[in-house]
Specification:
The complex is a heterodimer. By secondary structure, chain A is mostly helical. Chain A has a domain at 84-286: MetI-like fold (Orthogonal Bundle). Helices cover 74% and strands 0% of the residues of chain A. Chain A is built from twelve helices and no strands. In chain A, helix 4 runs parallel beside helix 7, helix 4 packs across helix 10 (202-217) and helix 8 (176-184) runs antiparallel to helix 9. The longest helix of chain A is centred in the first third of the chain and has 39 residues, at 17-55. Chain B has two domains: 6-61; 73-333, MetI-like (MetI-like fold), CATH 1.10.3720.10. In chain B, strand 1 and strand 2 (85-86) form a beta hairpin. Chain B is mainly alpha-helical. Chain B contains 13 helices and two strands; from the N terminus they run H-H-H-H-E-E-H-H-H-H-H-H-H-H-H. The chains are: A mainly alpha, B mainly alpha. The interface between A and B is large, with 99 and 91 residues.
């Protein structure tokens, strides 16, 4: 506020009331927008913490669900199931995504590269429910039943484009001089890519992987008719499996108070998982994206 | 011919053997190089293959209803699985209305937040604010839905909807019993989910506008708002449009949160208080219960339509964002 007054004497002697008024109104509008956006964020997190912490107990973390309407039980099998599905998804999605990212960054400065880049961006915008249908067609129909594998495939499909693009961006940040230095020592190209370029960009690539992981960890829609859900423990990849987001969904729309309580507890666990992985990313990123390069 | 040939080759061989090691290393490296290149290429091609698989799956598995109903499928309002009658119009309508409502709320908010962060905010507040809005995007859809069911919907039912009905009921958009659950709740929760996309893209294109542009407008004696609207927003408008369309793409395909609050009834009503249904939520709700082939095919056709629309929307958005960020990047380099 000091500088406009200062300006008024030096540069612009008269700014009309109308223009000053509009300027103030715009500022107020922008601040209001920020408040209106932060309000639901605060409300969501506030309720999650308030309801979630009140609902988590040992049974929730160690027991399987009780039959509908009965009080007690927990989501231990869903937490385990989610881990299994996420593991399967990452096993497929991470290597393929990183590979595609390497291709784009190191070999993809051409038409085919542009096409793949564009397709990955488009694939990023495909609704998750569609991915669920595709995984259903690919895995569930061929196997004949719902399975953790089908859920993993769905999540992998969602991870690949994200990881591809972030890996590419991170590899492109590596200065060319680093590559040239390796070539100068007679290191073959594949070795250069793996032990020099990728190595230099490791923390950046991990950032991308964690972001993709955080994104699919909460996905519900693609699991509805792939992993399907399960009331019991399951460690077999070709059996229907419970997943945390699925359990939250079915408990939230159920008519039972105790299930509502557990839905909040499950949501808190899920959000902690996601916030921890995103914060880890921020931490790694702040420690220097390109440690080796500088 | 056979005579002289062995001689040079023999000479070369001896030559190679003499210099031996480094060249031999390069030779085996060339093979490994090619294998590595091919492996990476396969990963890259798998991205293309994925889109191919998606299209193939959706197209072949929805052929049954496509042949039975044709275009009528999307404009008929009868969704009657028992009598094998499928018309997807209520879902198309619900998707369009809820997404439009979401944009109506989210666009001014998203742009406002971006304007504040890039042009008005004190420097120390900038990165925490940006991080916080990004956090909004990281919350899973199912958690938004949970929150909406137990927090948003009661507020709407008890306070907001009666008030809207009293003062704006005459428009016809806010009439009928205030259930809380319905199109309005879906629009609001979608808006909350779409704001971070719009604001982050808007922020990106606004920062791409060269600093000189701002200084030039300020030098002409503009107020801060005039500088923002004339110098920045006008130059970034194509990119902002891209962000809005990207937000639309997200809203169209959003499933869980909407399914949890929209009421899931295939009806068309002018009032926003009334329950509705969207394309994504009908798939989510009925897919695993679809008993007949035709039922399944109808649901997959809804999915195919949703896929095609979101693809078109996304491509459009990408092109718009590119025109701004790419153009300015080129200019600032030159």
């Amino acid at each position: 506020m000091a500088s406009p007054a200062n300006n008024a004497t030096v540069i612009a002697p008269k700014v009309s009331l109308w223009r000053r008024g509009t300027d103030h109104l715009a500022t107020i509008a922008a601040v209001t927008a920020v408040i209106l956006v932060l309000l639901p964020l605060g409300a969501v997190f506030g309720y999650l913490l308030y309801k979630g912490f009140g609902s988590i107990n040992l049974a929730f973390l160690t027991k399987t669900p009780k039959p509908p309407g009965e009080v007690g039980g927990g989501m231990a099998n869903a937490i385990a199931g989610s881990s299994l599905i996420l593991l399967l998804g990452s096993l497929v999605g991470v290597p393929v995504g990183i590979g595609a990212g390497i291709y784009l960054a190191e070999y993809g400065r051409n038409r085919l590269g542009n096409l793949i880049r564009f397709t990955a961006d488009v694939l990023n915008g495909v609704p998750s429910i569609i991915v669920g249908i595709v995984a259903y067609g690919l895995v569930v129909l061929t196997q004949g039943h719902f399975s953790a594998l089908a859920g993993g495939v769905a999540l992998a499909i969602m991870m690949i484009p994200t990881i591809t693009r972030t890996t590419e961006e991170m590899l492109l940040l590596v200065p060319n001089a680093v590559r040239e230095a390796a070539y100068g020592l007679g290191v073959p190209r594949w070795r250069t890519v793996l032990s020099v370029t990728l190595r230099t960009a490791t923390s950046g690539v991990i950032t991308g992987v964690m972001l993709a992981f955080a994104r699919v960890a909460g996905e519900t829609a693609p699991l509805l008719f792939t992993a399907f859900g399960n009331q019991f423990w399951n460690w077999k990849i070709n059996q229907p499996t419970a997943a945390l987001p699925l359990q939250i969904f079915s408990y939230a729309i159920s008519p039972y108070d105790d299930w509502h309580r557990q839905a909040w507890a499950g949501a808190l666990i899920l959000i902690i998982l996601i916030v921890v992985s995103i914060s880890a990313v921020r931490f790694v990123a702040s420690r220097g994206m390109m440690k080796g390069a500088n | 011919m056979p005579g002289p040939q062995p001689v040079p080759s023999k000479v070369e061989k001896i030559d190679v053997a003499a210099h031996s090691r480094p060249l031999e290393g390069a030779g085996s490296g060339a093979l490994a190089d090619r294998a590595f290149h091919l492996a990476m290429l396969a990963c890259g091609l798998s991205v293309l293959a994925l889109v191919g698989v998606i299209i193939y799956q959706l197209a072949t598995k929805s052929a049954l209803t496509w042949h039975a109903f044709g275009w009528k499928f999307f404009f008929d309002s009868d969704w009657d699985p028992v009598n094998e009658l499928y018309g997807a119009w209520p879902f198309v309508y619900g998707t369009l209305v809820s997404s439009f409502l979401a944009l109506l709320i989210a666009v001014p908010l998203g742009i406002g937040v971006a304007v504040f962060i890039t042009e008005m905010s004190p420097a120390w507040l900038r990165s925490p604010l940006a991080f916080t809005t990004e956090l909004l995007a990281a919350i899973p859809s199912v958690i938004y839905g949970l929150w909406a069911i137990f927090v948003l919907v009661p507020i709407l039912r008890q306070d907001v909807e009666p008030w809207l009905g009293k003062y704006l009921g005459w428009t016809g958009f806010f009439s009928g019993a205030p259930y809380g659950i319905g199109m309005l709740a879906a629009g609001i929760i979608l808006a909350i989910m779409v704001v971070p996309i719009i604001s982050s893209i808007t922020r990106e294109v606004m920062t791409a506008v060269p600093q000189q542009q701002r200084e030039a407008v300020l030098a002409l004696g503009a107020t801060r708002w005039e500088m923002i609207s004339m110098g920045v927003l006008r130059n970034a408008r194509a990119g902002i449009m891209g962000g809005v369309i990207l937000g639309l793409g997200r809203a169209l395909g959003e499933t869980m949160a909407v399914t949890m609050v929209i009421g899931n009834r295939p009806e068309i009503s002018k009032s926003l208080f009334a329950p509705g249904y969207t394309m994504a939520s009908v798939i989510a709700n009925e897919f695993s219960e679809a008993t007949s082939d035709k039922y399944l095919s109808a649901l997959i056709e809804v999915g195919l339509a949703l896929f095609i629309v979101t693809i078109i929307v996304n491509i459009l958005a990408q092109i718009l964002v590119w025109t701004v960020t790419r153009g300015t990047a080129a200019r600032s380099h030159g």
